[in-house]
Structures are given as C-alpha cells and as structure tokens.
Amino acid sequence: MAKVLRLADFRRNGKRMVSFDRQELRQLLNVYSRRVATGEWKDYAIDFGRGAAMFSIFRSSFDTPLFSIVKRTNGGRSEYLAMSGRQELKRGSSMVEVLSVFDRPMRLISRHR
Asked: Distance (Å, rounded) from C-alpha 21 to C-alpha 56?
C-alpha cells in the first residue's frame, strides 16, 4: 500500500523564494536588449531559488554565462551582485547601481572606403 506524504513537511523553512519584480526585469532586459542589438550577447536564463534569483547572460546558447546578475534577500533587504564567472564586478543595494557596470559611452565608428 502506498504511503501519502505531505510535501510541505520536506520543504526548507525560513528562506523564501526570491524573484525579480517587474521593474527589475525591465531594467535587466533594457541592458540585455542593447547588447543584443550590438551582437555582443545572444541568450539569457533566469533562475529562481530559495535565497537568490539569477539572471545569466550568454554569448551563445551552448556557452557558460559571461555575466550573472544576482538578487539575494536577507530579511527584508535585497542585495544585488554583478558577476563574471566567480569574480564579483559590483555589489549594491539597487539594481540600477549594479547594472551601471554595463554602461559605457557610445562612440562613433567611422568606415574607411
């Protein structure tokens, strides 16, 4: 005879599921779409888990992530990280602050014929 188990009994208590809100996703996708338009980035993935959410950016679908933007929560506060592999590029208390790593001035590229 089968035994019925409650899944709630096996879930870890304490840490809530972390996700990006609508504004954070808009900010992430704005930066991502600009780099896609220049041909630098090709794909992304979003992972949600207990304690952290991650937006990973890829050069191709079969590659390891070039960059990851991580949102972690501790109590009621959120902390954001920009990572390249295991190297931390920027840490901050807002998404805009962390995404500033990807800001760079536009430049004119002249073509010689």
From this structure: 16
